[in-house]
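fold-stage: in
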Amino acid sequence: MILNISLLVSSFAFSFAVLWATGIVLDYEFIKSKLITALGLLACTAIGMFMAYTNNNYSHMVKLLIAIGSIVVPSVIHCVILNHWKLNILYAYALGIVLRENTVSVLKIALENEQQEVEFLFAYALTALLIFALIKLLQYKKWITVIQSNIKVIPVKLYIVILFFLYLMSCFEYIAVSEDKQDIARILILPVVFMSIFIIAWIMKISVSEREHQNVSKLLEIQLANQLEHYNKVNDIYSEFRAFRHDLNNHLICLRSYISDNSTDEALAYIEEISNRTLITKKTYDTGNIMADALLNDKNDKAVGCNTHITFSGFVPTMGITSPDLCTIMANALDNAIEACAKDKSDDKKEIKVSSDFCKGYFFFKVTNPVFDKVEIKNGNQVRTSKKDSSLHGFGVANIVKTVEKYSGKTELSVKDGEFILDIQLMLQQNL
């Protein structure tokens, strides 16, 4: 009797823990009807109790149908309680079942009592306790938001593979300790190992893709900010033109009166005053590419802070290379050059020379800047400094090299006469 009550309580706790965790991780709220929630949890508990007392003498087909039903039916109940009809609820419940099965397999090893009800009792209780503790810990650390955003990145296929792998692991754990099933355990070793490697590789690929996506997003943000700044400056120039045109007739009337009175000196003074008042700042850079102009202006403003000026010669293509890739090359090259110049704490004026050109489908880009630390070049396109702070050129150059290689190009680095030279050649794409 006590065993049955304990199993009932642990089964209910397991059902609630899985439902609660699913709602939090997937950001779903329970329906307002507490009656439906309670009845749904009791139904899930009843299914768990039925599984605990399932007769092992059933045929394999019947066992398979029972196993499928024990996952699908509670998942449908969870959909009703969470008021969302999504497959990810099925995946979440299936993951809870697989975790429970793994616990059962471990308990078969640890417990001498092979009574199925006892195994399910401990499995339900331990799994529920684990889920409760994990969710509470994540809430305390405020990681739930991070999990909710990252979980959307994982493909559905990977969820299924992980579920299958965990279930296979539980089977392997159970079979491995059975003396009469050692041959089956040996057969399962290879699939378990291969699936482990496959899942790790897949997760690493997703992590790399996510990192690349973040980098591209940051570059796009930088590009957009630079473009907006450039457009604002252009807008200011247009505003000055409009203001001058508005007052032009009045100025002409005044000048005509001075000339009519032969007041040449006054007319000249008036013209000088108008010229000073309507002086428009000359465009600092004119590369032929709006984004490159904005980027050079922005970086030059930063370079001024370390007594450095950026000079530019040539042209930057507007086709054949995407704006994010062009931004990656130019921004990293200029940032590294400015960082190198900032190493010099003297008041000496420094110059970063940038040259760019494109001819017959090729883009040539070169940045030259003074260096004040010892720089070692490895393999022609890798940088190592003598300082503990290895950020000089290293990380930025790696991004540049990777981007240039996308266009079948090459990146050459060299140090000559106290100057660091970054020389890039790449092939422009006709479809861009």
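fold-stage: in (second)
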Amino acid sequence: MQIQRLVDLEDYEFDTLLVTYNHKNRLSIELGKVSEIFNVLTEDGLVGGSKVYGLRGKDFSYQGQPYYNLIFIGIPENASPRKYQLQFGAAVKEARKLKGRNLLMTAIGDDVSFWLSSAMKGILLGDYTFDKYHFEKEERPEINLGILTGVDQASFKKEVQYSRMLAESVILARDLVNEPANIMTPAALADAARAVCEKNNIKFSVLEKEDCEAMGMNSFLSVAKGSKQPPKFIVMEYNGRATDDEKIALVGKGICFDSGGYNLKPDKAMKGMHGDMGGAAAVIGAIGAIAQAKLGINVTAIVPACENMVSGKAAKPGDIVQSMNGKYIEVVNTDAEGRMALVDAITYAIRQCNATTVIDVATLTGACVVALGDRYTGVFSNSDDLTAKLVQASIIAGENIWRLPLGGDEYAELNKSSVADIANCGTKCGAIAAARFLAEFVERKPWIHMDIAGSSESDADTQIYAEGGTGAAVMTLYELVKIMEKPYKSY
């Protein structure tokens, strides 16, 4: 998608005009014809509030130029960055329906810097599609976006670069999640991570099965035992400030397919399990953006990648394994495998990479989906200060998060085992039990767990989403790292 700054319409022929309106039905473009159409649509209930509505006409014109499509975009009072993303994402989908190719919008006023990048991200993400495996592809001409604005060229260019960088990082994560499991194997995921590192000057390494065995990663390896696909322990190290002792570890669950193991999933739950590496996709996308922006901070992304399959070698319910941390884990449920992989990755981050802060991202529990649905990411943390930064980052990024409790002493027995130090699965409070299990391995480091089991996937083509992977958490992770950067820089 081409995005260009316009000061007049002399060199830009457009076919689709985007017009926003607020809670008082004030239009961003006050023209007689546009206002008349808007008033008629209001009476019919087609616009108003937060509705996005497009129509095709024959005699539309703006500043002497004819156009064919008119799209009204409702922007509520005090709209958040997320709302701008959602609304403009919906608008670009309307433009596609109307066969629009060259879009025009205005960005004029004192608050342009607040919403412009969110609008551009919304348009870029809303136009995403994954049709790689369609033999007969639907024709999708490139969409161009012209923005009529008083924002100076240098500032505008910066906003476009920032918006495109984050949108492309989210799209990378979506592509990784949307690949089927026969393509996106642990080895293929490692190759994708390597490509990001080579492009952005990030140090890359992979620990093979033998390396993991030598380091005592028995918890991670217990998950991989049942598959013919060899596990890959992926490490991506970005040193934006080599003299700083602080280092953030982004740990992403990389289960490339989750059958549930011997606690086999039912058929309906098996669908979509190629996307159980959404956390891995998120940290790969995020560290690519962090390096591309040259943030002055040290960040390491770690991905324990494997498959959870059934075979004569697979882990069995009741097995006991010793983690890299040293703690013995009773495998109560082989379908609680993500946390088994994550704890060795967390230990590696702390003991081998000297991480001072740990954030893990994982499609971890169905219980979190029950609690929060598919538009919110569940967050658990042992640090109020770090969580406050994450909340700020999520608002800027336009992604919904909701903090859930670890439960303190009242839930201390959730993962109790009579035969080992800890059980990998509790009998209740599924999302909390999983988070508390991870918390046992963070060694008192400031830590956040993001459960993206619901938010990592969309079942509908709507707003900024397409059916499939959403790229959840990529933008929030980027904004969090940017907030934690010292000194704070704009991008």
